[in-house]
Task: inverse folding
């Protein structure tokens, strides 16, 4: 609780905390607003004073600048007026100087004109005398030239007459030579004509014979003729160009088809450089059904694959009018890999090209062959190891099975022996029982209830049966 005294009636009263805080807040808010209004009014007054001061300062500066500009303007006007006066004076002086120079130049021009006229007159007089001298000299020279010209014309006429005589003589000689040349040419033409006509007749006869021979030749003979031609070409260069090469006919027809020739070339170490399967195709001119080169490519690729050749080449005379096959070596690798079609004249060049291209890769082939050999060795070792493991496992399995069978047989033998043992033991018991039973057997027991046997035993004992039984009993037991 707080005690508050009223400033008017000076009466004290008490208020609680909330009321006291409310009264204190009202007092603080009122004082704050009052103080705020006072400060705002002071700031507004200071602002207005500063604005008025700045305006007066700007006005003063503007007036000072205007006065300065007016002074500069007056000064410039004065300078301009002084400049105009000096300019007028300078113009007058320049005009005087120019007029003076003009008069001087006029006088000099008049003097120069007079001197030029005098020089022209002197030059004309000098030129006239020179022209006169030159004219006289020219006249003398003309007379001399006329004399020389007359002499030259005389010499020229003589030379012309002499030259005409020589030319006419040469013309006559040339005419005679031309006539002789014409006669000789005619003779040569006639002889050449006769010679070529004879050759043409012989050629026509040979063509007819060849056509007749082709007509008689079978398809096999045509093909063999091309094969022999290619083989002859190769054998001509075998010793020099292909000393290590293999080029023989393909006689292996186990798969149902075969190529014509197989070419294999290797280096001195036996590493294969290149291998080519060749197929030779030809046909007669009069064949009704014309074959195409593409008809044989599939079979050639099959033969090449079966014989393990890298390249396949069709040496063909088919399609003789084809521009494609007549241009040279035709690459048909877009149809079958590493396959070419050539005419017979490109047979040897193609082998050389393929061999040269493969020689560059010989080093890599040798390395590949070495790697393959190593792989083969590893593969053989692995195969032998697998074979050993398989054989060892099989032998182990057989031995294990035999060992098991032996153990089973031993177990069976033991079982049989046990049965024999049991049987023998049973026999022993039976024998003991039989022995016991035999020991218990007496004549008395045997003859009991059997009067016949009792009588027989009594007779054997020599007395009455009943009396003799006791004496016979021990013997019977024994």
Result:
């Amino acid at each position: 609780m707080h005690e508050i005294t009223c400033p008017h009636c000076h009466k004290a009263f008490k208020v609680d905390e909330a009321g006291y805080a409310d009264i204190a807040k009202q007092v603080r808010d009122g004082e704050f607003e009052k103080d705020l209004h006072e400060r705002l009014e002071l700031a507004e007054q200071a602002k207005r004073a500063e604005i008025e001061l700045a305006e007066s300062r700007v006005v003063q500066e503007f007036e000072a600048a205007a006065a300065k500009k007016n002074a500069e303007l007056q000064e410039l006007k004065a300078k301009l007026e002084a400049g105009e006066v000096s300019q007028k004076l300078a113009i007058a002086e320049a005009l005087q100087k120019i007029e003076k120079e003009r008069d001087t130049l006029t006088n000099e021009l008049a003097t120069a004109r007079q001197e030029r006229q005098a020089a022209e007159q002197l030059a004309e007089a000098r030129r006239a005398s020179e022209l006169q001298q030159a004219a006289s000299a020219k006249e003398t020279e003309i007379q001399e030239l006329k004399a020389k010209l007359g002499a030259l014309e005389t010499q020229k006429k003589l030379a012309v007459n002499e030259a005409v005589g020589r030319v006419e003589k040469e013309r006559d000689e040339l005419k005679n030579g031309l006539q002789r040349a014409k006669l000789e040419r005619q003779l040569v033409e006639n002889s050449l004509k006769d010679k070529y006509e004879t050759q043409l007749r012989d050629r026509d006869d040979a063509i007819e014979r060849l056509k007749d021979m082709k007509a008689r030749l079978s398809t096999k003979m045509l093909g063999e003729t091309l094969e022999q031609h290619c083989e002859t070409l190769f054998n001509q260069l075998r010793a020099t160009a292909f000393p290590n090469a293999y080029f023989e006919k393909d006689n292996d027809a186990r798969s149902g088809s075969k190529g014509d020739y197989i070419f294999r070339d290797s280096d001195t170490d036996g590493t294969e450089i290149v291998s080519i399967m060749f197929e030779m195709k030809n046909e007669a001119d009069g064949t009704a059904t014309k074959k195409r080169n593409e008809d044989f490519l599939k079979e050639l690729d099959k033969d090449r694959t079966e014989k393990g050749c890298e390249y396949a080449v069709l040496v063909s005379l088919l399609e003789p009018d084809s521009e494609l096959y007549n241009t040279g070596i035709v690459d048909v690798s877009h149809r079958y890999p590493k396959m070419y079609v050539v005419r017979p004249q490109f047979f040897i060049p193609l082998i050389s090209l393929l061999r040269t291209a493969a020689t560059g890769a010989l080093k890599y082939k040798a390395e590949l062959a070495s790697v393959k050999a190593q792989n083969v060795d590893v593969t053989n070792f692995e195969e032998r190891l697998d074979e050993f493991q398989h054989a060892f496992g099989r032998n182990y399995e057989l031995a294990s099975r035999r060992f098991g069978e032996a153990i089973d047989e031993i177990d069976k033998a033991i079982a049989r022996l046990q049965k024999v043992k049991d049987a023998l033991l049973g026999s022993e018991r039976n024998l003991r029982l039989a022995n016991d039973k035999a020991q218990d057997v007496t004549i008395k027991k045997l003859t009991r209830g059997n009067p016949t046997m009792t009588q027989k035993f009594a007779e054997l004992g020599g007395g009455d049966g009943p009396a003799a039984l006791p004496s016979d009993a021990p013997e019977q037991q024994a």
Observations:
- The first helix runs from residue 17 to 216.
